[in-house]
Design goal:
5 strands, 5-stranded parallel β-sheet, 192 residues, 58% helix, Rossmann fold, 9 helices, binds adenosine monophosphate, alpha/beta
Length: 192
């Protein structure tokens, strides 16, 4: 199995790249943000719970997020591998992912980080907010809070995967196609 953690701050292009890469490599794409938004739209208990955090640009608590992720992975029993997009975002989530994959006799193959400067992120998210309908893209202070949360709680995961020799940084600025080529070069190097 190839299991990729696509990593980077909000607006780095994780979702865009995951959508291309899942087709190219036949992987199951799990975006925790998308699952939360689906649940909000359908007014499930999970959605109601997650919304209060998401609207402020805060992380949804680990216990809620981890059980949701486990359920998503269990729903894809025959998968050739996964692209995790927006997960893990905390050390506890990274541990939970490692344990979950170990139970399936597999592991994270690589964390691929899309590197983009903060001011470009803010501009991209404000632009996306014009059409995404996402409340957390509509307000610059919420966008900046999401980036702050990324540095405070999520960026440490770089060390976690570096220690395991699984961290790959990729320049996340350029055309979608150029960035896909850069990420693909990393994935192809794993297979050999
Ligand atoms: P995203 O679509 O990845 O930008 O996520 C949007 C929002 O969903 C985040 O700002 C968080 O509130 C929530 N979220 C998504 N993934 C996670 C996660 N792994 N842990 C906690 N909260 C998350």
């Amino acid at each position: 199995m190839i299991n990729i953690v696509l990593f980077g701050p909000p607006g780095a292009g994780k979702g865009t790249q995951a959508n291309v890469l899942k087709e190219k490599y036949g992987l199951v794409h799990i975006s925790t943000g998308d699952v939360f938004r689906y649940n909000i739209k359908n007014q499930t208990e999970l959605g109601v719970n997650a919304k209060s955090f998401m609207d402020k640009g805060q992380l949804v608590p680990d216990n809620v997020t981890i059980s949701m992720l486990e359920a998503e992975v269990d729903q894809a029993p025959g998968a050739k591998g996964f692209i995790f997009d927006g997960f893990p975002r905390t050390a506890a989530q990274a541990e939970a992912l490692s344990n979950l994959l170990a139970k399936k006799n597999t592991e994270v193959s690589a964390m691929i980080a899309l590197e983009v400067d903060d001011e470009i992120l803010v501009q991209r998210l404000l632009e996306r907010g014009k059409t995404s309908g996402r409340q957390d893209d509509a307000d610059e202070s919420i966008i900046r809070n999401r980036i702050k949360v990324y540095y405070e709680e999520t960026a440490i995961l770089k060390q976690y995967y570096l220690k395991q020799d699984k961290y790959y940084g990729v320049d996340g600025v350029g055309s979608i196609n150029d960035i896909t080529q850069r990420v693909s070069a990393v994935i192809d190097s794993l297979k050999n």
